[in-house]
Amino acid sequence: AITQNLTEALGNMARGKLSESNIRDGMAQVRHALLEADVNYDVAKDFCDRVTEEAVGEQVLKSLKPGEQIVGIVYRELVNLMGPVDHSIELRRGEMTVLMMCGLQGSGKTTTCGKLAKMLKEEGAKPMLVAADLQRPAAIEQLKVIGEQIGVPVYAEPADRSSPVKVCQNGRKEANRQGCNILILDTAGRLHVDDALMKELIEIDNRLMPHQALLVCDAMTGQDAVNSAKSFNEALELDGVILTKLDGDTRGGAALSVKAVTGVPIKYIGVGEQLDRLEQFHPDRMAQRILGQGDVATLLETATRVLDEDEMARQQQKMLEGKFSLDDFLKAIDQMKKMGPMKSLMKLIPGMGQIAGAMDELGDMDPDKDVKRLRAMIQSMTLDERQNPDRIDRSRRNRIAQGSGTDPAEVNDLLKQFKGMSGMMQKMAGLSATDRFREVQK
Ligand code: GDP
């Protein structure tokens, strides 16, 4: 919604003949869009004041395309609002790097500890997780399960016979013994910021002297997330925030306000429940997404990370030869699915942000559900039919519809679409990968 409202406000400015009063009206609309997205009031006001001041400058008004210039200013200021960010986590030879993870209950702290451990492990580090959340009864067990899934050791002690500081200290010893080089402390959370919680965290902070203290915040809670970041930072001096659940229907306000309100940058974002859904936070990419210009960099990164290159090459070859079948189509869909939910992928494609947003409002248009129907239809075909869809006549079509719980018209649509797509794919297969992405951008 923020993308839609912002692009509308900016679009209005770009269309009309620009004058100082137009710009002020337009920026009032921008401010409204920001507030609606749950951006902190002062942040929204300062932001718009800054953009207005720059935009009413003579050079902008006299320039050839003042509308575009203003979008440029908004983009730059959005990037400044959220950055700069230093993602580095220093590893020193012979020294244990200690990361202290904090957050309120339900923020996604334990899950994020696992995600971070997985990411660091994939980068060649040897992490160990420490179950120092003795507050939430299930947290220890949950961390052990996560550790198992990602193949990272977890240090834990029985909650009733230990203390958080003791667990952390013993965890460090065990990590040294096992030759690990990063210790990730999953500390206690509570429902609200309170003195007892802060006291416990400050004690861990003093005794363990972590290299970084990272706060996990739930983006869905908007301003509450920002306020809790403020309180945590006053007690602990945070090095960074990890904003979770940015995949959901968040209004985006937290992402825009955290740095401006607390001075602490967002370093990572959680974009799904699975343990590989953690990304570095890039203010420029976020600004592009917010302005509905998509995020091709992230799309490409995800693609190279999760897609099976051999399989892609095989499919490309088949397309070139015009042998791409419905079976391959299914495989291609499965590959796409590995990259995440369709809706969130579509938001990364330039120009699609607004459409995906509009789709949220329509509600019944769910690309993932459509994919399920597609799969059901293809799976109800015989192998021969999948290779030679031309052979599918009326009676076969009825059978497929019945087998997949769809109706014949839908099967017909699929076949038509597939035919059209094969033609297009053959054309696209001839282009190089980067050209193909350019094609998508148009
Ligand atoms: P904790 O109490 O802070 O340790 O929270 P948990 O790690 O148990 O997470 C709470 C819930 O949030 C769980 O259901 C997680 O799967 C979910 N969660 C965590 N991170 C994300 C995220 O980035 N996206 C989504 N959609 N869910 C998340």
Structure overview:
This protein is an alpha/beta fold and 442 residues long. The protein has 22 helices and eight strands. The protein starts with a helix and ends with a helix. The C terminus is likely disordered. It has three domains: 81 residues, SRP54, nucleotide-binding domain (Four Helix Bundle (Hemerythrin (Met), subunit A)), CATH 1.20.120.140; 197 residues, P-loop containing nucleotide triphosphate hydrolases (Rossmann fold); 144 residues, 434 Repressor (Amino-terminal Domain) (Orthogonal Bundle), CATH 1.10.260. β6, α11 and β7 form a beta-alpha-beta unit. Guanosine-5'-diphosphate (GDP) binds next to α6. It catalyses: GTP + H2O = GDP + phosphate + H(+). It holds the Pfam family SRP_SPB. GO terms for molecular function: 7S RNA binding; GTP binding; GTPase activity. It is found in: Cytoplasm. Belongs to the GTP-binding SRP family. SRP54 subfamily.
In short:
This protein is of the alpha/beta class and 442 residues long.
Layout of secondary structure:
Blueprint (H helix, E strand, L loop, with lengths): L1 H14 L4 H17 L4 H15 L2 H5 L3 H17 L14 E7 L5 H14 L4 E6 L6 H12 L3 E2 L8 H14 L4 E6 L7 H14 L3 E7 L4 H14 L3 E5 L8 H10 L3 E5 L7 E3 L2 H8 L5 H11 L2 H12 L5 H13 L3 H7 L3 H11 L4 H13 L3 H5 L6 H11 L3 H22 L3 H9 L1
Parallel strand pairs: 1-4, 1-5, 2-3, 2-4, 5-6, 6-7
Antiparallel strand pairs: 7-8
Helix pairs in contact: 1-2, 1-5, 2-3, 3-5, 5-12, 6-7, 8-9, 10-11, 14-21, 15-18, 16-17, 18-20, 20-21
Enzyme class: hydrolase
Protein name: Signal recognition particle protein
Subcellular location: Cytoplasm
